[in-house]
Write a structure and sequence with these properties.
By secondary structure, the chain is of the alpha+beta class. It has one domain. It is built from six helices and five strands. The chain has a five-stranded antiparallel sheet with strand order 1-2-3-4-5, with helices on one face. α3 packs antiparallel against α4. The chain is globular, with a radius of gyration of 18 Å. The chain starts with a helix and ends in a 16-residue tail after the last strand.
Length: 199
């Protein structure tokens, strides 16, 4: 390995460490200083665009509502990926689900559909991430969530992970609506106990 290759590897390693530290620092600030969380209860999760649009939260007048609906919508992916993408298009407002995002959802969720249910109350690795019904979820802000005008990064806590994970949202000033910008909460979590050969 040449000197330049060695320098490049060192720089990449340092960048990864710094990025990880930033995410962990932001997560650790949840619950400190300015914080606010909103809880949502859904009698059922939407199966299609019409059902999503009929939900009171579908006004999308707060970033918290859009974040909660994003998790609820992704729970449909296993049964109907196309209906899920249509609902995500609605949540993305003027934007739409990109080809990259479609591949990302498939890669992150296929065979691991429990990931999205893990954000709801009552879902645990022990019960295969079966949430309580009605479905309850909390969306959290930290001191940096609304630092940039018309942008927000909110957090949702998976019952299979140690730290909350982010979702990025963008406000459309002309309508006051908050739309989904980027889903950052589909990392791997603890697998259900029933699937864990070491449990």
């Amino acid at each position: 390995m040449g000197f330049l290759d060695s320098l490049k590897k060192m720089a990449e390693s340092k960048l990864k460490r710094e990025a990880s530290k930033l995410v962990n620092d932001a997560a650790s600030q949840i619950g400190k200083g300015r914080n606010h969380s909103e809880s949502f209860t859904f009698a059922s999760l939407p199966n299609n665009l019409a059902e999503l649009q009929a939900m009171p939260e579908a006004k999308l007048d707060t970033a918290f509502k859009t974040a909660a609906l994003t998790v609820a919508v992704l729970c449909r992916y296993e049964q109907d990926p196309q209906a899920t993408l249509e609902m995500l298009d609605f949540l993305k407002g003027p934007g739409d689900v990109s080809t990259y995002e479609k591949s990302f959802f498939k890669e992150r969720l296929e065979g691991k559909y429990y990931k999205t249910f893990a954000f709801f109350e009552g879902a645990t690795p022990q019960n295969g991430y079966k949430p309580n019904v009605p479905y309850k979820i909390s969306v959290i802000e930290n001191p940096y969530s609304f630092d940039n005008e018309n942008w927000a990064t909110l957090w949702v806590k998976s019952n299979g992970a140690d730290n909350p994970a982010p979702v990025k949202l963008r406000k459309k000033p002309s309508t006051g609506q908050w739309f989904l910008n980027e889903i950052q909460f589909l990392s791997d979590i603890r697998i259900p106990v029933a699937e864990d050969e070491w449990a």
